[in-house]
Amino acid sequence: MANFVQYKFKSDEKGFTIIEMLLVLSIVMVVSSSVILLSASKLEEMEEERFYKQLHLDIQRIQAISIGENKYTYIYFINNRRSYQARSANIILFEKELPRNMHLADESTIKTISFHPNGNLNNFGNLLFETERGEKRITLYIGRGVINYEK
Q1: What local confidence, expressed as pLDDT, does residue 84 receive?
Q2: What's the average model confidence in pLDDT over 50-68?
């Protein structure tokens, strides 16, 4: 017959109770959820900054096209001011979406950015964008299209 080794639990052995395990698990969940919330907020901030840099590059691109092709060029804000479209002689050059929680405010003094064939900005003023974290103003100055950003 096979000898079975019997193991008896000793009363002095210590282990984790289910309450201790649940407590540790809940602490880990709270810490990990706070990290996820902080990283999501940082991602939205980075997306907004990327948008402002891209808009600046698109304005410069339209200005360069205006000078190079000796045509009027425009940037229109469309889709309830949640995207913009670049045009030259009624030809759509490109279209870009704004980040999901951002739109051009009604108080913005510029709704269309246009460049003269010599590269000068036709209209000057402010583009005011509303986001969840507040407003950001982009000022376009008349002339060669100098751009200033304000938070």
Answers
A1: 93
A2: 91
**CA torsion through residues 51, 52, 58, 62, sign:** positive
The answer to whether the beta carbons of residues 102 and 48 sit under 8 Å apart is yes
Which residue's structure tokens are 């982009």?
A: 138
Cβ neighbors of 72 (< 8 A, separation 6 or more) are 66, 88, 89, 114, 115, 116, 117, 122
Q: Which tens digit of pLDDT belongs to each residue from 95-119? A: 999 988 888 998 888 889 999 998 8
The number of angstroms, rounded, from the C-alpha of 110 to the middle of its chain's C-alpha atoms is 21
Place of tokens 């009363």: 11
Residue (of 77, 49, 54) closest to 151 by Cα position: 49
Beta strand 73-78 with 83-88 is antiparallel
140 beta partners:
125, 147
Structural domains present in the chain = 46-150 (3.55.40.10)
pLDDT of res. 10: 60
Say how far apart CA 64 and CA 50 lie, in whole Å.
Answer: 21
The pLDDT value recorded for residue 33 is 83
